[in-house]
Design a protein that fits this description.
The complex is a heterodimer of chains A (327) and B (698). Helices cover 25% and strands 32% of the residues of chain A. Chain A has 327 residues and is an alpha/beta fold. In chain A, the strands form four sheets. A six-stranded mixed sheet of chain A has the order 13-12-11-14-15-16, with helices on one face. A five-stranded mixed sheet of chain A has the order 2-8-7-4-5. Chain A has a three-stranded antiparallel sheet with strand order 1-3-6. In chain A, strand 12 and strand 13 form a beta hairpin. In chain A, helix 1 runs antiparallel to helix 2 and helix 5 packs antiparallel against helix 6. Chain A is elongated. Chain A starts with a helix and ends with a strand. In chain B, the strands form six sheets. Chain B has a seven-stranded antiparallel sheet with strand order 7-10-15-8-2-20-19, with helices on one face. Chain B has a five-stranded antiparallel sheet with strand order 9-3-18-21-22. In chain B, helix 6 runs antiparallel to helix 7. Chain B is of the alpha+beta class and 698 residues long. Classes of the chains: A alpha/beta (327), B alpha+beta (698). At the A-B interface, helix 1, helix 2, strand 4 and strand 5 of A face helix 6, helix 7 and helix 9 of B.
C-alpha cells in the first residue's frame, strides 16, 4: 500500500505516463484481488459438527466442513474461524486448496475452563486468495449449543452405603445379595462360594443356591446451592463435588437421586441416561437464582452444602480453602 | 509440478523481466547486467540446501555490503545517486534469491522487482518498457499467488516445519490449471490497467525526471568535426511526421532538409554558437498555440503534419525547410494545460519548452517558405575567418576565381563536389597522411575524403574567405516513408551538415557534399520491413501511451460521447420499438444459454463434462488396456466378448499366483476409477502400471 501511494504521488508529481501505467497496474491488482477473493468465498458452504456434551478442562474436537460450490476454478488459502458466544472469531481451520465442488473437513481442538452452556454463533470464512493484498471475510450464521459439564472435584465421600443400607460390599456380591430364590444345578460360570454342599451331597451333583435381587435403595444427594449464593467459588466447587459424587455412585451402579434446593432433578428409572441428565442440570445450574430454596435433608441423605441438617445426614462441607470435609 | 520449484522459477523470471529496462540502459555501468544475471540465475538454479549454509549467507551479505560501499565511493566520485541506487537495487533482488528462507524474502523479491520496474521509467520510455510491463503483468499474478500461499502456509503451520516442507515439495498444491488461471488473471489485469490508465485524470505537475542523456552529438552548442558521424551510427528515430492532409503523404519529404542547429564561429576544429546563441520567446501570431515564424513565398496549399519528436538536449525543434507555422503541443500542469512556448534565435533555430523529458508533439504547416532570414545588420559575424586556416583562403581563391558572388559561390561548391569524395571511413594509409594536421586540413590537402561535416566546414570557410557570409548548419536530410504506419520517419542515420550562404540579400541553402549519406535507405523505404513494423509499434507506444495527456483524454471522452449518442437517437423510435429490440436480443441470449446448457449436459453425460470424471475414466481405460495386453501375452488368447475381466483372469490357467494377484489388484483399481468416481493422479497411475509390468514380466 505504501508503494502504491508512493507511485501514485510520483505519477501525479511528475506527470510521467509510465508511472501512471504502473499505478494503474497496481490498482488493477488490488481490485482484482478483492473481486477474486469475493468470488472465491461467494459459493462456499460451511458446516459445523461438535459434540453435544463435554467436560470442563477437557479437550474436545469441533469439526468444520467447508465445501466449495464453485463450478470451475480452484480456491486457495481459505480460513474458517469459529465464533463461540460473543467472543471474537478465534478457532481457525486453514484449507490450502479447494477444488471445484470439493468438500474438506478439519477439526480444531477446544477446551472450556468452566461449566455451562456453550453457544456457537457463526463461522467466518475468509480468504486472501489470490494475491494476498486484501482479506475478504464472509460470516455464516451457524448457531449451535453444547453443554460443558462441571469437572469432577475428587472429594472424600462418606460411606453412606455401609452403615445402614448394607451396600458397602454390594458391588462384590452382585448377583447374590437378596433373599433365597431357588436351588439349581451348578454351571461353570457360577461362583463356587454359593455351592450348597449339603444339597449337592444329597442330590449327587453340585447345586447352587440362588438368591433374589435386592430391592434397590437409592442414595439421595442434596446440593444446597442456595447456601453458596454469596460465595461463587465455593458454589462452583460444590457443583464439581456433586458431579464427582454422582458419577462415583453411578459408576457403582447405585441408584442416585439428585436434589438441587427443593427440586428433585432426576427420578430413577425415568431417564435412560440418568447420569447425563444430572450432569446436564449441574452444567446449567445457576445458583444465584432466587427460586432455588434450601434443602430438607433427612437421615441417610448425602447433603452437600452449608446449611443446617438433622442428625443422621451424611454431609460434605466445602471449605473456603477449596478442600472438603465430611461428617 | 512442485510448489517450491515453480515458485523459485517464477520469482527468477519476475526479477529478470523487471530488471530488463535497467540492464539495457546505457546509463548504468556495464558490469551490473552480467553480475545481476549471474547472481540471479545461480540463486534460481542451485539447490536450496546449498544456500542455507552460513558461509554462503555471510558471503552474499558481505558482497552486498562491499558493493554498497563501492557505490557510496562512486557517488563521492561524482556518480549520480539515482544511478547508484538503480545499480544497487537489482543486485539486492538477485541476492535475495540466494537468501530466501521464508516467505518474507519472496515478498521482498516481488516488491524489489516492482521498485526496479519503477526505476526503469527513469531510463527510457521506449517500447521495450511496454513489453516488459506486459510480461510483468502476465507473470506477476502467479508470483503473488505463490508467495501469498507460501505465507499462509508458513503462518498457519509454523509449529510444524515438516508439514510446510511437505507442502513445498508437494505436486498436488498446484496444477497446470492454476497456472492457466493466473495467466487469465494477468490478461484481466491488463485490461483493467488499460481502462484505469485511460480514465485516470492527468493532473500531473509535469516535473518529469529522466536519467536519459538526450544529448545528440553534432547538435549541441559546440560541435567538433566527427560528432555527426557518431550520431549517424545510431538508428534511433528522432522524428515522425504523420500527414494530416491528403496531399501531404508524398510531398517531397524524401529529400527534405530538417533544419536543426546553426553555427557561426570556427575555432580549431570546433564549430561554436558564439554570437547568436541568445534565444527569445517566440510570440504566437496565430490563434492560441499557433506560431507563424516565416511566411511562404507563394500561396500554395500547405501540407499539414503532426510531428512526434524525441527529446534532445538542447531542446531543438527540428523542422523541415518550408515550414511556416508551428502549432505547439500542450504542457500539463496541475489540473490544466497550457500551450508549450517556443524560443527562437536570430538564425531561426527553434527550441521548445522542455519539462517532461519526453520530447515534443506539435503540428507543422509546410509550404515553400524560405528559411528564417534574421537581422541583416549582423552579417559581418558570418564572415569571421580563423587565422590558422590561411591555406584554405588560398584554396578558395583558386577555386572561386572571379565573377559575381553567386558565381563564385557556385564555383567553390562545384569544385568541392568534384575534387573531393565522400567517405565515412579512411584506409590506414590515408590516415597516416598529414599526421598532426587538423581534420579539415587533412581533408582538403591530403587524402581528400570526408563526410558532410568536412565538406560543409570547408565550404563555409571558403565562402567566408571569398567574402560571402556563410554559416554551418546541422540537421537531418531526408525522411523514410513508413508504409505500414503511414508516416515519415527520420532517424539519426540521416544526420547531415550543410551550408547556408547569404547571396543577393537573402540566405539560401547549399550542399557541398557530393554523395548523400541516406540515399540508399531512402531508395529502399517502400518495402515493409521488420524494422518498419517495430518502428510503428514504437510510434504507437510513444503516441498513445507515453504521450497520453489531458488533451487526448478529452478527445477520447468526446469520441465516446459521440459513439454513445446513438442511444439518445433511439428516443424518436418510440419505446415499443426499443422494447422490441430488447426482447429480440433477450430471446437470442436465452436461446444461446439454452444451447450451451444442453451442450454441457450432453458432455457431462458422455463423461467429458467434468475434469474429475474424465480423468478417472481415462485412467481406467488405460489400466484396462494394459491389463488385457499383459494377460493376452501370458495367457495366449484375447478376452472373449461375453467374458468379464475377472472371469478372464480366473480362466487363464498359466498365470502364477503373483500375476493373478497383481491382475486382480489392477482390476480393482480399474473398477474404482471406472465406476466409483475415483481420481487417479498420473504419478500413481504410472506406479501401478510399473508394478503391473514387473509382475507380468516373463
Amino acid at each position: 500500500m505504501v508503494l502504491l501511494l508512493g507511485i501514485g504521488f510520483a505519477a501525479v508529481n511528475t506527470g510521467s505516463n509510465l508511472l501512471f501505467l504502473l499505478l494503474s497496474m497496481m490498482i488493477s491488482f488490488l481490485l482484482l484481488d478483492g473481486a477474486m477473493a469475493a468470488w472465491a468465498i461467494a459459493r462456499i458452504q460451511v458446516h459445523r459438527q461438535h459434540p453435544l456434551r463435554a467436560r470442563a478442562n477437557e479437550t474436545f474436537l469441533v469439526n468444520l466442513r467447508v465445501t466449495s460450490r464453485q463450478r470451475r476454478g480452484v480456491v486457495f488459502s481459505v480460513e474458517a474461524r469459529d465464533q463461540i458466544g460473543k467472543a471474537p472469531f478465534r478457532r481457525s481451520c486453514f484449507f490450502v486448496r479447494l477444488e471445484p465442488g470439493e468438500s474438506r473437513e478439519i477439526a480444531y481442538r477446544c477446551e472450556m475452563a468452566h461449566r455451562g452452556r456453550l453457544q456457537f454463533t457463526g463461522v467466518a470464512v475468509s480468504t486472501r486468495f489470490p494475491f494476498g493484498f486484501l482479506e475478504i471475510t464472509q460470516v455464516f450464521s451457524l448457531p449451535g449449543v453444547m453443554l460443558i459439564w462441571p469437572q469432577p472435584y475428587p472429594a472424600e465421600i462418606p460411606d453412606v452405603l455401609s452403615t445402614e443400607t448394607g451396600y458397602s460390599d454390594w458391588q462384590s456380591r452382585k448377583r447374590y445379595p437378596g433373599d433365597f430364590h431357588q436351588v439349581r444345578p451348578y454351571q461353570e460360570s457360577d461362583d463356587p462360594r454359593y455351592i450348597s454342599w449339603k444339597l449337592s451331597a444329597a442330590k449327587g451333583e453340585l447345586q447352587v443356591r440362588e438368591n433374589e435381587e435386592p430391592s434397590q435403595r437409592e442414595v439421595r444427594v442434596l446440593l444446597d446451592a442456595a447456601s453458596f449464593r454469596t460465595d461463587s467459588d465455593r458454589a462452583e466447587l460444590a457443583i464439581r463435588v456433586t458431579a464427582f459424587v454422582v458419577e462415583v455412585l453411578c459408576s457403582r451402579k447405585i441408584p442416585v437421586r439428585l436434589a438441587i434446593g427443593k427440586e428433585w432433578v432426576q427420578v430413577p428409572g425415568e431417564s435412560a441416561e440418568p447420569l447425563w441428565e444430572m450432569l446436564d442440570v449441574l452444567a446449567r445450574l445457576d445458583f444465584t437464582e432466587r427460586r432455588i430454596g434450601s434443602c430438607f435433608a433427612q437421615p441417610g441423605d448425602l447433603y452437600i452444602g452449608d446449611g443446617e441438617c438433622p442428625a443422621g445426614v451424611f454431609r460434605v462441607r466445602v471449605l473456603a480453602s477449596g478442600r472438603t470435609a465430611t461428617t | 509440478m512442485r510448489f517450491d520449484r515453480l515458485h523459485r522459477t517464477v520469482l527468477v523470471m519476475l526479477a529478470w523481466i523487471s530488471a530488463i529496462p535497467l540492464l539495457t540502459s546505457s546509463e548504468l555501468s556495464g558490469f551490473v547486467g552480467p553480475l545481476f544475471c549471474g547472481v540471479l540465475l545461480l540463486g534460481g538454479v542451485l539447490p536450496g540446501r546449498w544456500m542455507r549454509g552460513a558461509v554462503v549467507r555471510w558471503g552474499i551479505s558481505a558482497g552486498l555490503l562491499a558493493f554498497l560501499l563501492i557505490q557510496i565511493w562512486r557517488i563521492l566520485g561524482g556518480l549520480s545517486p539515482v544511478v547508484a541506487i538503480l545499480e544497487f537495487a537489482p543486485l539486492v533482488m538477485a541476492a535475495r534469491m540466494w537468501l530466501r528462507m521464508r516467505y518474507s524474502s519472496d515478498w521482498q523479491i516481488v516488491l524489489l522487482s516492482l521498485v526496479t520496474l519503477v526505476g526503469g521509467t527513469l531510463t527510457g520510455p521506449d517500447l521495450l518498457y511496454g513489453v516488459v510491463v506486459v510480461l510483468f503483468i502476465l507473470i506477476c499474478p502467479l508470483a503473488l499467488l505463490l508467495t501469498g500461499l507460501r505465507k499462509e502456509m508458513e503462518t498457519r503451520f509454523y509449529r510444524d516445519p515438516d508439514a510446510i516442507h511437505r507442502l513445498m515439495q508437494s505436486r498436488r498444491v498446484l496444477s497446470m490449471q492454476v497456472v492457466r488461471t493466473t495467466v487469465w488473471m494477468g490478461a484481466l489485469v491488463m485490461v483493467m490497467t488499460v481502462l484505469i490508465f485511460l480514465i485516470f485524470p492527468r493532473w500531473g505537475m509535469g516535473s518529469g525526471v529522466s536519467l536519459l542523456d538526450p544529448t545528440l552529438p553534432g547538435f549541441s552548442s559546440e560541435v567538433r568535426i566527427g560528432d555527426l558521424e557518431e550520431t549517424m551510427e545510431n538508428t534511433t528515430v528522432y522524428l515522425r511526421l504523420i500527414p494530416l492532409t491528403d496531399g501531404s503523404t508524398r510531398s517531397g519529404m524524401r529529400n527534405r532538409r530538417f533544419r536543426g542547429m546553426v553555427y557561426d564561429e570556427y575555432r580549431q576544429g570546433v564549430w561554436v554558437q558564439s554570437n547568436f546563441a541568445t534565444f527569445g520567446r517566440l510570440v504566437g501570431e496565430g490563434p492560441g498555440d499557433m506560431f507563424v515564424f516565416t511566411l511562404p513565398k507563394t500561396r500554395v496549399t500547405p501540407a499539414r503534419f503532426r510531428v512526434l519528436q524525441k527529446a534532445v538536449h538542447p531542446p531543438l525543434l527540428f523542422f523541415p525547410e518550408g515550414t511556416f507555422v508551428v502549432r505547439t503541443g500542450f504542457v500539463n500542469e496541475v489540473g490544466r494545460r497550457r500551450p508549450r512556448y517556443l524560443e527562437i534565435n536570430d538564425t531561426g533555430v527553434l527550441r521548445y519548452e522542455e519539462g517532461s523529458g519526453l520530447g515534443s508533439r506539435h503540428e507543422i504547416w509546410l509550404g515553400d517558405a524560405p528559411i528564417p532570414q534574421g537581422k541583416t545588420t549582423h552579417l559581418r559575424r558570418w564572415l569571421v575567418f580563423p587565422q590558422e586556416m590561411e591555406p584554405v583562403r588560398e584554396l578558395a581563391a583558386r577555386y572561386a576565381q572571379s565573377g559575381s558572388v553567386a558565381f563564385r559561390a557556385q564555383k567553390i561548391l562545384r569544385e568541392l563536389r568534384s575534387r573531393y569524395s565522400y567517405a565515412r571511413t579512411l584506409t590506414p594509409q590515408e590516415r597516416r597522411q598529414g599526421k598532426g594536421a587538423s581534420p579539415l586540413e587533412n581533408f582538403l590537402f591530403h587524402h581528400g575524403k570526408g563526410t558532410c561535416e568536412h565538406f560543409a566546414t570547408a565550404a563555409v570557410l571558403m565562402l567566408r574567405a571569398e567574402g560571402i557570409p556563410a554559416r554551418y548548419v546541422t540537421g537531418f536530410l531526408g525522411a523514410k516513408w513508413n508504409r505500414l504506419g503511414g508516416y515519415w520517419s527520420v532517424n539519426a542515420e540521416a544526420a547531415h551538415a550543410w551550408v547556408e550562404m547569404y547571396i543577393d540579400g537573402k540566405w539560401v541553402t547549399a550542399d557541398p557534399t557530393p554523395s548523400l549519406p541516406g540515399s540508399s535507405q531512402r531508395a529502399a523505404s517502400d518495402r515493409i520491413t521488420a524494422s518498419m513494423i517495430v518502428d510503428v509499434l514504437m510510434m504507437k507506444w510513444q503516441d498513445h501511451v507515453v504521450g497520453y495527456d489531458l488533451g487526448i483524454q478529452r478527445k477520447l471522452l468526446e469520441r465516446f460521447r459521440q459513439a454513445t449518442s446513438w442511444l439518445l437517437s433511439l428516443k424518436p423510435m418510440g419505446y415499443w420499438k426499443i422494447l422490441g429490440i430488447l426482447g429480440i436480443g433477450g430471446l437470442g441470449i436465452a436461446l444461446l444459454l439454452r444451447w450451451r446448457f444442453r451442450r454441457n449436459r450432453c458432455r457431462q453425460r458422455a463423461g467429458r463434462g467434468s475434469l474429475r470424471a474424465s480423468s478417472g475414466i481415462r485412467a481406467a481405460q488405460t489400466l484396462l488396456t494394459h491389463l488385457e495386453s499383459g494377460l493376452q501375452r501370458i495367457g495366449g488368447r484375447k478376452r472373449r466378448p461375453n467374458e468379464t475381466p475377472l472371469e478372464y483372469i480366473e480362466a487363464l490357467e498359466n498365470l502364477t499366483d503373483a500375476q493373478r494377484f497383481s491382475a486382480r489388484e489392477l482390476l480393482r483399481v480399474y473398477h474404482q476409477c471406472r465406476f466409483g468416481g475415483r481420481r487417479l493422479p498420473r504419478e500413481r497411475q504410472r506406479r501401478i502400471l510399473k508394478t503391473h509390468r514387473t509382475a507380468f514380466r516373463t
